[in-house]
Amino acid sequence: MSKTLTEKILSKASGKSVTPGDVIEVKINIVAFHDLTGYHVIEVMEKADMMKVHNIDSLVIAFDHLVPPPDVRSAEIQQYIRKFVKILNVKNFHDIGYGILHQILLEKYVLPGQIVIAADSHTTTSGALGAFSQGMGASDVAAIIITGKTWMTVPHPFKITLSGKLKEWVTGKDVALEILKVFKADYFNGMAIEVFVENPNSFPMDYRATVANMGIEMNADTLMFIPDEVTIDYIKYMRGIIPRNILPDKDAKYIDEYTMELDKVELLVSAPHSVDNVKSVREVAGIDVDYVFIGSCTNGRLSDLEIAAKILKGRKVKTRCIVIPASWNVFKKAMELGYIHTIVEAGCIVTYGTCGPCIGGHFGVTAPNEIVVSTSNRNFIGRMGSPQAKIYLSGPSVAAATAILGKIAEPGDLK
Amino acid sequence: MIIEGRVIKLGDKIDTDIIIPAKHLKYTEPEYLAQHVFESIDPEFHKKAKGAIIVAGKVFGMGSSREQAAIAIKAAGIKAILAESFARIFYRNAINNGLPVIVCPDITKEVDEGEIIKVNIESGEVIVENRIIKCKGITGMALDILRAGGLIEYLKNLEENR
What is the value of ipTM here, to two decimals? Predict the structure, then answer.
């Protein structure tokens, strides 16, 4: 029987031919956690009295949420995890300074066709490389570290085709928001989205990572891009290896499908307080903004900084502006290419290797009644600090244009 | 297992930042988390939660993987959650911490705030006064974990029975 990518990956990992709705046990290729969930994972292992790792090579740890530690408790959490790393001799450990876990997984670890589970909901990001990836809680992740496997219900695969080419300044973020605008946040519950890109080079890896990252905001079990030459080239460029590819069968059956014409996608924002409250920039243009954040596992990649730098070049920001590259690697390249210089000249603060204000932890939390434009992934009440703040989510071009004008804007509004 | 309790009604898309904001995630102690559950929408929530059953709309618990969301709700004394649908990660976290979660299409139209309801968590039958509403009971692996009292206990049992 022909199979979708979801069915192929889960059949291989469970050792039997699966169909949607089956409850299966699967072997996990990569299991990961960061500081904020990691100490909880280790606590569970301690409580269960099972301080052992099934396969040390498959475990990846990166510090990103409490980086650098803003208080004693955060520093303690990291100290506790470092002890675990030392005792169990964890090889794939990234202390502060390497970057956000999801970005590191893309740059260094994940391969097409793998199953990736991490103690963070935005683990769907690894779907950019055609891996079946999803977040789980601390207990589930602890059980995977101990046993190497987990149980799951096989989701119903849904096919999205991206055809054509995006307009100038429109990016992966707008595509993610367009999907949320059309389907809303509850539609894909229990489904796995498989994205086919008709012209692979029209939709680069950074855009794929943004869309896959937002798969969790669609409440999809996972969101995978069908691996193509862009996937292979990315892995070859980043790691010097050529991965084995995996593709769905040509006549595989999907629960439904949807084609998006990229040429028609507009610049979009998610208005407060829900990610699927999607509006065109024109509908909200002119709203006064206090603070702009460009970064996170959603939009802290090189192309995001490139777009921001293009718009900020030779201009000064009117809002407070914080920019956080998603990894050391992104930061270094952005420096070499002059983007960081341009962004700093424009009046933004740049730091790196942290989730920063996205989770309202530190590095720019919001005050009551402030209005924020953020390239991150959630605008829920209280997400970035005060429950009275209002968060608009956008792509990098809208965020940069907004920072310059001090009100919600798109690049075309700049003189 | 039959659970009885007073209904607290919540809407659609209750997210994990509403259940327990990130600033509390540096701790896992149930008593601490219970004090802060739903504090941004109702600072008094933990006082009225004891013995109640939450009835909610679509994708309850959407958002982050924070297991503290399930721990906080359970520690506040909520006996079960009935929702029209659950976010996948929250559903697993609830089961893994011994909090019964039951999928109930249209339940928000069937019951009112403050009503006393009885829920059979295996069969999915919900009794409201003299009416019976049929929901999806907890089955399979999820039921095994719930019956063990959570995932840690389930894993311990597996180890012992080896």
Answer: 0.97
